[in-house]
# Entry
Amino acid sequence: MRYQLSLDSCTKACSVALTPLLDGGKGFAWFEILERGHAEIIAHQAQLLMQDAGIKAQDIAQIAVTIGPGTFTGARIALAFARMFAAARDIPIIAVNSLEAIAFNAVNNLSLSRNDIVYTAIDARRGQVYFASYDGTGAEIFAPEAIEISSATEMIKSDSLILGTGRELLIEAIEDFQELHKLNPNMHFPQAKIFGDRVKNRVAETAPVSPLYLRAADAKLPASHPITFTQ
# Structure
């Protein structure tokens, strides 16, 4: 049995999954919400899952990984491991944006029709959210952007489905918002098990995969100053 290794670290959640490439195979997954330590744990959890599945690195045929948006560092952690693993094994990478991955939670767990709209938002700080929307099958409607909260709420109907860490920011700004579904808290984060299964037949990237940054990093390097010496 050949597997896809699926990885995410874009938010404070971290997840790893082994997705069988043939229908009927058994999958393995790990998901946890962490305050820190994503870089230290993701490779270890991948190794543990391979042990649980009884497979070795050569049984991994491809990798699916979220590339952002998310935290500036988090968007790089899973991707860095994915690129290293893929280069060592000469296998392809499937890139998944984290807002799409979150939308897949709704597609997978809720009874949606194609006409339903899933809005996904990640808190981008500074009065903005990373925002996108998808139909009930997961097809993209509004491509990911970093936009003002007020601009995002103008696109959302009062009885819509909103997922992601920026959800509460949007709901607070929408008058008479009504929730249509009962949502598990974990649905607001990418989950490798879910998005891995959704994209396993997607065409892999042909160019090097880079993080999806919709906005420059908040941290700025200090301006350089000439060094003077006094005696």
Summary: The two ends are 72 Å apart (CA to CA).
